[in-house]
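Q: Make up one entry.
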Amino acid sequence: MRLSRWGIAFIQLGALLLAIGLVPLGIMATLFPSVSALVPVLLSLSVAPLGGLCLLAGLVMWGIGAVRR
């Protein structure tokens, strides 16, 4: 598999992890502001940074693969 394909896969994984981490937090903050949002906060603190790192690594890999092509 080429490096650009790995980059695309990491970009998709990073976007998915960011969505899993940030969407529940946004929903709980807008729809239920008075309810304790412990689970969405834990998701945003544990999954979202990993998604950001995957997204960044995927962009770097995709860029290097695009230059090498």
